[in-house]
Structures are given as C-alpha cells and as structure tokens.
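Minutes, project check-in

Agenda point 3 was the complex the collaborators sent over. CS summarized: two entities, 496 residues total, and the question is how they sit relative to each other. Sequences were read into the notes so everyone works from the same version.
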Amino acid sequence: MSMAWSTMLLKMGEGMLHTCAIFALTVLFSLPLGIIVMLLRRSRFKPVQWITKIYIAIMRGTPLMLQLLAWYFGPYYLFGASIRGYRFTAIIIGFTMNYAAYFAEIYRGGIEAIPKGQYEASHVLGYSKAQTFFKIILPQLIKTILPSITNEVITLVKDTSLAFALAYNEMFSIAKQIAAKETSFTPFIVAAVFYFVANYVVAFVMERIEKAFDYYK
Amino acid sequence: MKKILCLLLALTMVFALCACGGKGESPTADYVFLKEELGVETYAIGFRLGDEALAKQVSDAIKALVVDGTFDKIASKPEYADIKDFLCLKAEDFAGETLPERGSGDSSFTFKQGYDQDYPPYAYMLDDGTYGGFDIEVCKAVCEYLGWGYEGVPFAWDFKDQELNAKSCDCIWSGMTKEGREDKYTWGITYSNNTQGILVAADSDIETLDDLAGKVVGVQIGTSAAEMLEGDRKALADSFGELKTYETYNVAFNDLKAGAIDAIAIDMTTGAYLVSSAS
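CS then shared the predicted structure for the full assembly.
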C-alpha cells in the first residue's frame, strides 16, 4: 500500500461522519414522518387512504437507489431547476421518504395488534380518547414495535452506502475509491469493520431502550 | 459476558481476514497483453451538445499548454508513465494556430470539471486523500492559464450524462472514450489514443483472440471494452465460455490473480496500471 494507513483511516473516518450524518438525519425525520403517514393511512376519508397506500406502494416497491436518483435529478428534468448544491438535501429527502413508509407500516402493525378490549375497558373506566391513547395504547405499542424498528434502523446503516449513486462521499464510496487506487481489498475490510461496529452500537442502544420499556412482566 | 466474547471472536475473524487480504499476495506470475488488439479508442473531453464555444476555448488552452511545455511536464510525472505513450498532442501540430494568451479568460468564470472519482490514473484519490490524476491536473492547468476558477465535480460514472445535462458540471473529463459517442456530446480536443486489449497471465496458454473460445473473460461494466464486446466484437464475445461483468476492474483483476477467470478485456493503460501496482 502506498497510501499510509493513517490517511486511509482518516479518509474513511471522514466518510463515516458523512454516513452518520445521513443516518442521524434520516432517523430524526423519518420516525416522526412515519407517524403522520400512518395516521393518513388509517384515515377514514377514503381518498387520503388511497393516496397514502399508493405512496407506500411506490416507496416499498422501487429500489431506493432509483428513488435517490429521481429526487436528485427530478427537479432539473421536470422543471429545469438548477441542482447545484442540492446533492445532500436530495439524499436526506430520498432516505427520509423511503424509511417513513416502512416505519408507518410498522406503527400500523403495532396499533392494529392491540386488542379492541383495551379500548373498551378504558372507555368503561371513563378515559378520554387522548388519555386512552397516551396512557393505555402508546406504552403497549412502543413495546411491540421496538424490535421491528431496530431491524429497520440497522438496515438503514447499511443502506447509506446507496448514496454513492449521487457521488456523495460516504464511507463506502471512499472505500471504493481507495480500493481502485490501491488495487487492494483492504479498504473493503476496513469498511466491514466500520459497519459492524456501528451496527453493534445501534443494536446495543436499542436493546437498552427495549429493556427500559420492559414493563408488564 | 457471552455477548462480549462473541463480539471479540467476530472481530478477530475480521482482522484475520484483513491480514490475508492486505499483503499475503503470492509471488505473482506476470501478466501480459495479447498481441492481437480488441480495438482502438481515443480519449477526449465531452461538453454539452451545443457548447462549441466552451469546447473550443478549453481545447485551445490545452494546445497552448502543449506549446509552452506545461502539458508535457504533467505527462512526464512518474505516476503517469503508463499513459504517457498514448498521449497524442504534439507542439509542432499547432505551430501555425492562433492560441489564447495566458490570463485571457473571463476571471469571474468558474469551470466545473466533471470526473469519475475512481478512474486512476486519470482521476482518483491520491495518497494524501485529495483528488488528483492526469485529467484533473491538466484541467487545473487550463483554468490557471485562462484565469478561470476551478471546481471539481466527482460523480458516479453511470450517471455522467444526467450530471452533465443537469448542469452540475460543464464537461465530462476523465478518460472518456469518443468512439461510439460521437453524436452524444460536443467534443473537445482528443488527447489520448488508447487501445483495448486482452490481459492474461504470462504462463497461460492463450496466445490469440481465437484461443479465448470457451474461456471466462472479465470486463468492467460500462467501459469501452465492455461496449466493444457488446457491439463490434460481439462475435468474439459469443465465442467466450462466459463474459463476466464486474463493477470494478479491481475485483476482476483479483479474480484473474486467483485463477477464477482466464482473461480480462481492458484498455491497455488501465491494465498496465493494475499490473504495475499489483507487483
């Protein structure tokens, strides 16, 4: 290797920061957006429900990489808008919209798994609708959906590498560039370690959160 | 406790693999190109269709750099030894032409060079982690000569046309083949005359293109070699046992080293770079 180890690790560490930025912003925006999508999906007004269904179908039914390309190049091809400096924004929009669809379905699954008896019982006990949701439903809901959320979040860590399509220098793009320059596999192995450690941290944190919600035992 | 143990074991495993991958290459046999060539290709700079004025300005500035020796100075750097022989610009060819003066460009203009970020030695990440390469150095010299600002726009090669059309860059300039794309761009100066060949292990029994019948040949997706094998040289490709498409030549070359494939169809400069950096 003619590139120093320290330079390689530094560059890949820099890429890791970019990866973390995509990850953190996507989680930050898509978790709440998922709630909104879920509420729209459960709307009793049919057209809203249909539109949301179509949105979820598209987000889940097409590759994330194509969606990223569409978000980035779309404004130019549709409206002739300038896309200078828009790269990172497009990546965050693409990831957020995609993951919100998955999170919405996880939330919906959680809500629909709660037996009707719970609502009836709280009604009998005189709880208001809001009280029922926040005091009875939500605590049970979070517990049920946490493992599925962990799954999605771990997938997200690995999916960040798709940002290479928009030439954003996240860690995997940098690994590829160094590998091409050095004609060596070492950067990929370093990348594997980075991803593994990052996902171990995610799994560890999520496990602690699950423990915190481990009531009713 | 068990969890920590598991993690440690997993990490040990990864590092053990790391040690093998890093330096354990066996004393490599040499690799050679077949005498028969796959085809000739030239490298030029692609501009958006209709951008004739800009294409001419940049081309003329390159000619000026050839005349004043800057171009040759860049080309003579040791890292470009493999591609130097293919460069086809000579000062005597531009003797009678009127070329732009140094600093004659519009100093408020910033020229955006679009390039593939992993295409050594034309455009790639340097040892110190910044971007460089032959095409980038020449482009920077052009901007400096004309007094323009310079901005590098690295992109994924598969989406170069979208990037160019969407105006995120002014040109595609990283070892781009002109052949087969004549009508798609307004072309600037042709600066390299490169040839596609077949790379095999020196001790292999393949000596001519006909010997490739029934063999496994690797190629990188989207490269001129791949396009050639799907187009003009389709008959040859059909005679192969299998044409394996890789995302990068790096992986294909590893497969060749490991004996998993018999040959690689590749442009001779990139091939020479792979061979020299592996030994």
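Noted in discussion: Chain A has one domain: 5-212.
Follow-up: revisit at the next meeting once the mutant set is ready.
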